[in-house]
Amino acid sequence: MTLLIALALGWMTYFLLHSLLASLMVKRWVERHWPHWLPAYRLVFNAIAVVLLLPLLWLTYSIDAPVLWRWSGVWSWLANGLVLLAFAGFLWSMRYYDSSEFIGIRQWRAREVRVEDQEHLHISPLHRYVRHPWYLFALILMWSRDMNAPLLLTVCMASLYFLFGSRLEERKLLSYYGSAYTLYRQRVPGLIPMPWRYLSRDEAAELERMARLQQQSNRIARK
To answer: Which end of the chain, N or C, is less surrounded by CB atoms within 10 Å?
Structure first.
């Protein structure tokens, strides 16, 4: 029980710190006090996220606990099939992301000192059906595994973080893309696809155009 409490506190601390460091409030504080660090901010942020994640994963899998449930028979085939689809979807979706922007390499090379992300809103084929496809794939991967108590605790806390963290992330996206992202949120579900809520290719292109105009307006306003 003590280890489970320590694990829960560890995940709470990790998620709170992750959200805090990703917030515009902290980025703007760095901009005011240490602007020369801004080009490396995303790289450092990702490095911290990975380094702090490793001991929590180690603790999750090192706690000896009985299995709560195990997928077997046809359910095992279904669970593993979903895992393969999630991996395939993740790999396929990466072609629509700017990986250098996501990692922070582009900002470092360009010596970018602006707080806001500079990548344009890009509504990929998957984003036409769900706003956060990577979170969806992660949920599939997590909930399709055999469960013991520490893993269930980790999965539940991560799922809650995806729910609330995605809302915090979208506050930034609303400030970047304005009414275009508001319309996008109204039309497309956040984590779980719904067949009756999606964007056509032309509708996605129109929202991307609106978002680019909003970004241009934001840049002019800051000058």
So the answer is: C
